[in-house]
């Protein structure tokens, strides 16, 4: 597991020390001084629990890593029995699988839904049955449908990519750059959030996207979208590709066209992309993370929820309602640190 087990820098799941209450500098605290109640340590085993789990089929490298990381995280805790159910091919099939899981009455359920809105009622049914739900990544549309929402930062991905590109172009003295963007499926809110973050960050430098062609989160679609974009743009200064899986096709198209005058930023943080960034022998110079290690974090937090525990480094006694993970920028200088988190 190595760095996958860091989970919020280690504080969320492995800190055993209690957070100190309000103290004075005097060893003899004045009478009446208040102390802050703190959560119990989270590293020691709790009661035996069953963690139910459901995520879409592994038809994408990132999604495959979601299930793999969740299962690996559960093995770290001797009191956890991990019960995964097949999600099927769509939201309807996943709903049926979750209905069966709810009937089995696990102590907590971790679910990455095909579609948050379509599965909201199922999440709420589990909650009403007394089963806490950890909603992973794709949010339900009703807060009564989950105990904890743990998600990545799609808007933040765009911001991180925009800042890397903006800073690099400014440092190079490029005043009117030609910037391109290859998003994933444009109809998805996550794509829209990523593009908005990118646009907003670039605006801070006085820059904007000049060429944009959407793909479909697949290698073939990435290659086709990139080929079309390169034909339309005889010169580029920078390119952001939203997804490292489709980026395999994007790089193939770039290599076929023999284009080297620009630099590229990826998205999500695949291991292959991080290795290419380390090697520094392509136009790919960075990627911004949307790490599937979030599912490991979700299982670790689900364990605490089921045992009525909080996060030991927080004063609050219970797990927060929502946690949004930051998108981090991986470059040649820090790729070795992030590589164990790649998918």
What's the CATH H-level homologous superfamily of the largest domain?
A: Response regulator
CATH topology of the largest domain: Rossmann fold
Order of helices and strands: HEHEHEHEEHEHEHEHEHEHEEH
What value does the Rg take, in angstroms?
22 Å
- How far the N terminus sits from the C terminus, by CA atoms, comes to 12 Å
Using the alpha-carbon principal axes, give the shape.
elongated
Q: What's the total number of strands?
A: 12
The secondary structure category is: alpha/beta
Instruction: Name the strands of the widest sheet in spatial order.
Output: 2-1-3-4-5-11
Question: What is the helix tally?
Answer: 11
CATH class of the largest domain: Alpha Beta
Helicity range of the residues? 25-40%
The CATH level-2 architecture of the largest domain is identified as 3-Layer(aba) Sandwich
Q: Unreliable stretches, pLDDT < 50, 5 or more residues?
A: 1-40
What number is the mean pLDDT? 89
Q: Give the percentage of residues in beta strands.
A: 15-25%
Largest sheet: 6 strands, parallel
- Summed up, the domain count is 2
Folded structure, characterized:
The chain has two domains: 2-151 and 293-324, Rossmann fold, CATH 3.40.50; 154-289, Response regulator (Rossmann fold, 3-Layer(aba) Sandwich). The chain starts with 10 loop residues before the first helix and ends in a 5-residue tail after the last helix. It has helices at 11-14, 61-74, 91-103, 120-128, 154-171, 189-203, 219-232, 244-257, 271-279, 294-306, 335-338; strands at residues 49-54, 80-84, 108-111, 133-136, 148-151, 179-182, 209-212, 238-241, 263-268, 284-289, 322-324, 329-330. It is 37% helix and 15% strand. It is elongated and about 60 Å long. With 343 residues, it is α/β, with parallel strands linked by helices. The protein is built from eleven helices and twelve strands. The strands form two sheets. A six-stranded parallel sheet has the order 2-1-3-4-5-11, with helices on both faces.
């Amino acid at each position: 597991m190595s760095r996958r087990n860091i989970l919020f820098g280690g504080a969320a799941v492995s800190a055993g020390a209690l957070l100190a209450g309000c103290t004075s500098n005097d060893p003899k605290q004045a009478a009446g001084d208040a102390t802050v109640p703190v959560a119990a340590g989270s590293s020691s085993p709790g009661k035996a629990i069953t963690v139910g789990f459901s995520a879409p089929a592994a038809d994408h490298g990132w999604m495959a890593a979601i299930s793999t990381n969740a299962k690996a995280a559960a093995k770290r805790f001797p009191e956890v029995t991990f019960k995964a159910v097949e999600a099927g091919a769509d939201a309807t099939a996943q709903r049926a699988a979750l209905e069966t899981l709810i009937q089995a009455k696990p102590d907590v359920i971790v679910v990455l839904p095909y579609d948050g809105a379509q599965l909201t009622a199922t999440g709420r049914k589990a909650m009403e049955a007394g089963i806490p739900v950890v909603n992973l990544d794709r949010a339900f549309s009703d807060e009564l449908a989950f105990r904890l929402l743990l998600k990545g930062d799609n808007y933040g991905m765009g911001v991180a990519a925009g800042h890397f590109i903006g800073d690099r172009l400014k440092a190079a003295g490029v005043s009117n750059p030609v910037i391109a963007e290859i998003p994933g499926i444009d109809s998805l809110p996550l794509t829209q959030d990523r593009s908005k973050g990118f646009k907003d960050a670039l605006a801070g430098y006085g820059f904007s996207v000049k060429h944009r062609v959407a793909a479909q989160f697949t290698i073939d679609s990435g290659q086709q979208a990139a080929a079309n974009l390169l034909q339309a743009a005889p010169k580029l200064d920078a390119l952001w590709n939203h997804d490292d899986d489709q980026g395999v096709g994007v790089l193939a198209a770039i290599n076929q066209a023999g284009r080297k005058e620009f630099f590229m930023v990826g998205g999500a943080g695949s291991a292959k992309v991080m290795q290419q960034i380390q090697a520094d022998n392509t136009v790919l110079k960075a990627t911004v993370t949307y790490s599937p290690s979030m599912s490991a974090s979700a299982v670790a937090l689900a364990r605490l929820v089921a045992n009525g525990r909080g996060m030991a480094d927080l004063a609050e006694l219970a797990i927060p309602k929502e946690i949004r993970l930051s998108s981090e920028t991986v470059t040649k200088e820090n790729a070795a640190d992030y590589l164990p988190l790649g998918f």
